[in-house]
Structures are given as structure tokens and as C-alpha cells.
């Protein structure tokens, strides 16, 4: 028989995977992450945290707000410097919502996985299409989804919680 905490983890994992698949499909198809998907990601992450460890919820909320602020400033600075948008607002919202799902100490892991896989994807595009691929837009949401999925797995199933803040 599975205990209540195992059921909670199973349901949360299924919800997370479903939302991440929806985000990946939407971002690859339309180059946009719909706000309802980011809202679902944020709400379910906060809900999971409130069920599992409500004392830790303020830390996750602060991490989400900080993540949004830092990435929005980075996005804005890049735009002011180059005149181009390099990071979509949906990506910023998704990364902030992701902070509600994992330990704040795992955010660099998420970003590293997302960035590395995005660069590998672009490298593959260059190898197959040629240098013209460097001028095409690439959705970042699918790579953030992969980073969040891997970070979530590390924290929940491997036990890498880095001392849980």
C-alpha cells in the first residue's frame, strides 16, 4: 500500500510533467508560453509546497519573486543594450514559477541544464542547417522544462535537496 506522502509526490509529479509537456509543445509551435500554463505551473508548485512543507513556502515565494525580478532586469538590460529581446517574458515567468517547485539552491542547476541543452540544440541546428540557424529564434521554454524536470527529479527522487532551506 502506498502512503499519503507517496501519493502526493506521484500526483505532483504527474501534474508537473503534464504542464511541462504543454509548455514545451506550445513554445515550440508558437514561440510563446501562454500565461495560463505559467499560472498553472506556479499554482501547482505553491500548492505542492504548502501540502508538503508549509513552513518553507515563504522561502519559495521569495525565491520566485527574486528570480522574476533578476531575470526581468536582465531581459530589460539586454534589450536596452542590443535593441533586441533575448529572453521572452514567458520564459521569465516560467523560471519564476519553477522556483516554487524546487529548492532555491537548485535554481542554478535548472539554469545550467536549460542553457546547456539549448546550446546543444542550437549547435545541432548549425550542424544540420548551417550558419543560417544562428539567426533563427529558439524557444527557451522546452529547455527550462527539461531543467525543471531534472532538478525536480534530483530533489525528490535522488534526495538532492541541498539541506532544504
Could you explain how this protein is built, in words?
The protein is an all-alpha fold. It has one domain (4-158). 75% of the residues lie in helices and 0% in strands. It has 6 helices and no strands. The protein has helices at 4-30, 35-53, 57-82, 89-98, 107-129, 141-158. Helix 3 (57-82) packs antiparallel against helix 4 (89-98). The chain is globular.
Poorly predicted segments: none
Q: How does the helix and strand content classify structurally?
A: mainly alpha
Question: Helicity level, as a percent range?
Answer: over 70%
Bulk shape: globular
Relative strand content:
under 5%
Mind telling me the C-alpha Rg?
16 Å
What composes the largest sheet? none
What's the total number of strands? 0
Distance between the termini: 31 Å
SSE topology string: HHHHHH
Q: Specify the number of helices.
A: 6
Mean pLDDT: 91
The count of domains is: 1
Essential attributes:
mainly alpha, 165 residues, single chain
In short:
The chain contains 6 helices and no strands. It is mainly alpha-helical and 165 residues long.
What order do the helices and strands come in, and which of them pair?
Layout: H1 4-30, H2 35-53, H3 57-82, H4 89-98, H5 107-129, H6 141-158
Amino acid at each position: 500500500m502506498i502512503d499519503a506522502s507517496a501519493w502526493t509526490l506521484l500526483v505532483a509529479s504527474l501534474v508537473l510533467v503534464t504542464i511541462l509537456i504543454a509548455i514545451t509543445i506550445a513554445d515550440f509551435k508558437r514561440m510563446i508560453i501562454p500565461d495560463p500554463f505559467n499560472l498553472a505551473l506556479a499554482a501547482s508548485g505553491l500548492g505542492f509546497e504548502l501540502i508538503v512543507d508549509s513552513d518553507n513556502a515563504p522561502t519559495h515565494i521569495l525565491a520566485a519573486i527574486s528570480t522574476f525580478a533578476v531575470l526581468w532586469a536582465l531581459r530589460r538590460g539586454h534589450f536596452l543594450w542590443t535593441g533586441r529581446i533575448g529572453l521572452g517574458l514567458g520564459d521569465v515567468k516560467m523560471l519564476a514559477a519553477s522556483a516554487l517547485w524546487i529548492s532555491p539552491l537548485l535554481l542554478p542547476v535548472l539554469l545550467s541544464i536549460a542553457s546547456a541543452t539549448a546550446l546543444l540544440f542550437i549547435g545541432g541546428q548549425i550542424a544540420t542547417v548551417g550558419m543560417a540557424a544562428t539567426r533563427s529564434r529558439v524557444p527557451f521554454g522546452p529547455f527550462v522544462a527539461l531543467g525543471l524536470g531534472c532538478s525536480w527529479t534530483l530533489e525528490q527522487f535522488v534526495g538532492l535537496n541541498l539541506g532544504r532551506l
